[in-house]
Amino acid sequence: MTKASDLFVECLENEGVEYLFGVPGEENLDMLDSLSRSKKIKLILTRHEQGAGFMAATYGRHTGKTGVCMATLGPGATNLVTAAAYAQLGGMPILMVTGQKPIKKSKQGRFQILDVVDMMGPITKFTHQLASADNIPSRVREAIRLAEEEKPGATHIEFPEDIADEETDSTPIAPSLTRRPVAEAKAVRAATKKIETAKSPIIVVGGGANRTTTGRMLTQFIEKTGIPFVTTQLGKGVVDETHKEFMGCAALSANDFVHRAIESADLIINVGHDVIEKPPFFMAPGSTEVIHVSMNSAEVDPVYFPQIEVIGDIGNAIWQMKEDIVPSGSWNFDAMYKARRAEEEHTDSMDDDMRCPIYPPHLVKVVRDAMPADGIICLDNGVYKIWFARNYKARQANTVLLDNALATMGAGLPSAMASAMVYPKRKVMAICGDGGFMMNSQEMETAVRLKLNITVLVLNDNSYGMIRWKQANMGFKDWGLTYGNPDFVKYAEAYGANGHRITSAKNLQETIDKCLSTEGVHLIDCPVDYSDNDRILNHEIKELSAKA
Length: 548
Known about the structure:
Layout: E1 2-3, H1 4-14, E2 19-23, H2 29-35, E3 42-45, H3 49-63, E4 67-71, H4 75-78, H5 81-90, E5 94-100, H6 116-120, E6 126-129, H7 136-148, E7 154-160, H8 161-164, E8 167-168, H9 185-197, E9 201-205, H10 207-210, H11 215-225, E10 229-231, E11 246-249, H12 257-263, E12 267-271, E13 289-294, E14 308-311, H13 314-324, H14 334-348, H15 360-370, E15 376-379, H16 384-391, E16 400-401, H17 412-422, E17 428-433, H18 434-439, H19 443-449, E18 454-460, H20 465-473, H21 488-494, E19 498-501, H22 506-516, E20 521-527, H23 533-547
Parallel strand pairs: 2-3, 2-4, 4-5, 5-7, 6-7, 9-10, 9-12, 10-11, 12-13, 13-14, 15-16, 15-17, 17-18, 18-20, 19-20
Antiparallel strand pairs: 1-8
């Protein structure tokens, strides 16, 4: 006979779980005791459950394996809700394990008790309360299977403390061998025939392509055909964006140069489309036709109803299309390249501006120059995300981690921490606004304790800059969105990290290079000048792209 909590840990080990991120409570103590004897799973104690959830989700994004996090009942479980939604919308596999009071006999009435299973229902793929130790193997296996199945997402198991103390003779269930289904040959032929007869096709790379090993096949397809491509924010890096066929990233919702490139196409090959992202284009009856290439059939929407669907493993589908297609000598991409040249000229006119506080286009250029091709930047949510999505050329898949699904603040630092754990030899930088950074800044202690090598770039404007930008665009007066900040250098040093302050544009590159080449946790307090955001992002780009 085996104690239930020991069996639960054995099941996690059986699934290849390496880390368990979390903040335990008294209802998790049996589980914690069992974890203390595990030789395969390392407990990563965080300072907030949200940080644990974000770290688990990022682990899942990088590896494709389920990231596991743990919290107690009540407030611990509610603190995981944002992370659950982050993983669910962003397509990142996680399993959340929460404690609960005894369900068979409790002497504490309703103290701290919420219906956590019901609460998690709308934002997970699977949620279940364990009522018997005998069911642990099947429930853990099912939760992880569903978490990793395309589209990946969040799952949840509630583990009451009296069940955790039970004895059982159940044993772990081994994961089955699974292979993704391949696209049907007739669908592939229909798609390639449509592309061959088009006049000006374009490829749009979405978040689904970043979740699977698609980059190699898609690169080969682009190199064989010469068809230009654009990306969504979650599709960045699937194909090297220094490639001459790259036409830009759809960071703004409309009226950008990249939208002009898409509008000039008479056929859109939409690879890995995910409806959670802001659409890079809108369909209308009689407008540009769309080929949908994805693991799942298209969710029909008033502005999305593709004419051809190629459903199956995306990498394999693109390979089949590459093998079948005969590039057309009559394709014409002149309008796309004209729009791209206009965008690059506009960016080049701004990114050498050496003012201080730092100008956003210059900031992006400096970070890009400093980061190696496999370096990972993890963006929190703020207006700088638009600048990085537009101007930062991603070289590899999952090297630009931004959240264009839930678009939550507070994920940048924990995401960078998990990235540094998965890839300890790669350069990792968290890029956070001062608002987003302060939402989970306590995880600086966790990063220092874990001896991680990360650089945290805090963009300091003493305000919620994204909403301030929107406020200006809507014609409202500047009100209600400014605050004061701590001395971030002293704040970092208080945690045992290294603090750096930017006082001029000249030393920005030097400081970033120094931090990236030095071990430990570094925080850079970088003042930013957002005064031109409204003029450039809301007006100038719209006017210039219309002329492209």
